[in-house]
């Protein structure tokens, strides 16, 4: 825990000036609050016994002094509420930037096991509770401690008997709070897990809402959501059970403290040990004394919320990327595109080898097709080239250099990928094409669209290149989305291309247009094509047939048909 707290405190470093001013004004505000009952005591014990003129003059001076104190306290509270909250928001900004940047570093293997909704909750609701703790926590502690110790000193000078009566229940109050805090910590952590699960379920449902409606499975989705929602409600009920006992107990303790003071004060006044003025002053200080105790104890609830969120925040930051640049990795330029797999094997974290002892060599500018039954590892094999996954053994080289000796950014800058499942971002057509080269000019974007056979349909859209395409390009057809993704790669202009079944989901007319775009894009580039429709790769310079046993056959379309092996069987199946 100490290590985590150090990491939490480190986020104050850029805002030390604001933090210390915030603490200064918090201290000043607390001291002013302690002064007011003393003024009441002075008036009731001294001023009322002065002659009229002197009393009036004294009260006027006190009034002016009190107005000044109120104005100072008002500015203190303004600074705390304004700049203190800005400081908290700035720290939230820093944390959100840290975790988002860390998300970008993590590899496919991390996202294979995660739910998007849960990852989103780490960067939204968790961070809000953390920054509420970081902002309000220190000032609440400082203000409360000053009021408690200040009130204790003042009360002790008034009457040690009443002070003892006021403080006698405090240890029991703290022990009670400690017991319930331990229960609440576990309950709040469970709440976070449940709300993250609900976020994941909502994200999954909304992303697949068209599938839900196409199967008319809204009721099934409601039942699934109800199950998660019921779990969250049960966790909330559990936390509120402990919170109810916590709040009720603290209220009872603070009331009992007041009862003890009133009883002891009445006894002392009746015995002549204490005058009525001091009893009134004492009663005024009781709220100054009990409120900060309650604030301190309430702080533990805020601490549990914020700290449990910070633990979840650190859980993500502590995950080291399993694919990272070597210390001596370097950027490459003038890439020719020669790719070689040397005795490559690969397995996912929790399974057996998907690929075993794969050897292949592709010359620069060669057009190579990968075919084979589903599950043979074709996509996995291609994902190893840009290091989306790391080889388990063996090595892959680019122009003779181990790809692990090349910086990840430089490696991926030289590889273009066109997938079957096209992802387009929210925004315009222009924004989505320019994603391939963020500093591209409009002329370059338009030329890329023309090369991808996309310019004509883009100009037919309501606002041309400035047309908003909706979430994931929902307003476009499959062929149109695919041509935008190809335009994006044209703009990137990489020497190595990977087409992952880029036309298999399209109708015949769209496939023909997209295929023309792909062939134009592949010209003079090292190209890998994962093909479902074998008719689309008959002109490939080299075709590899991949099975669970590795590359079983290799050659041109004609050569493989003559072998009368697996390729011929697959080809005849597609014709059928």
Explain how this protein is built.
The protein is of the alpha/beta class and 576 residues long. The chain folds into 2 domains: 316 residues, ABC transporter transmembrane region fold, CATH 1.20.1560; 237 residues, Rossmann fold (3-Layer(aba) Sandwich). The chain is built from 20 helices and 10 strands. Strand 9 and strand 10 form a beta hairpin. Helix 2 runs antiparallel to helix 3 and helix 6 packs antiparallel against helix 7. The longest helix has 54 residues. The protein is elongated and about 120 Å long.
Shape: elongated
Mean pLDDT over the full residue set = 84
Radius of gyration: 35 Å
* CATH C-level of the largest domain: Mainly Alpha
Q: Helix tally?
A: 20
Largest sheet, described in full? 6 strands, mixed
CATH topology call of the largest domain: ABC transporter transmembrane region fold
- The CATH homologous superfamily of the largest domain corresponds to ABC transporter type 1, transmembrane domain
Q: In total, how many beta strands?
A: 10
Percent helix range: 55-70%
CATH architecture of the largest domain: Up-down Bundle
The tally of structural domains comes to 2
From the N-terminal CA to the C-terminal CA, the straight-line distance is 65 Å
State the strand order across the main sheet. Answer: 6-7-8-3-9-10
Structural class estimated from helices and strands:
alpha/beta
Note the beta-strand portion. 5-15%
Could you give the order of the helices and strands?
HHHHHHHHHHHEEEHEEHEHHHHEHEEEHH
Topology:
Elements: H1 2-9, H2 16-45, H3 52-105, H4 108-111, H5 116-123, H6 125-158, H7 160-167, H8 170-207, H9 209-214, H10 218-270, H11 276-317, E1 339-347, E2 353-362, E3 367-371, H12 378-383, E4 393-398, E5 401-402, H13 408-413, E6 415-419, H14 429-434, H15 442-451, H16 455-459, H17 478-492, E7 496-500, H18 508-522, E8 526-530, E9 542-547, E10 550-555, H19 557-563, H20 566-575
Parallel strand pairs: 3-8, 3-9, 6-7, 7-8
Antiparallel strand pairs: 1-2, 1-4, 4-5, 9-10
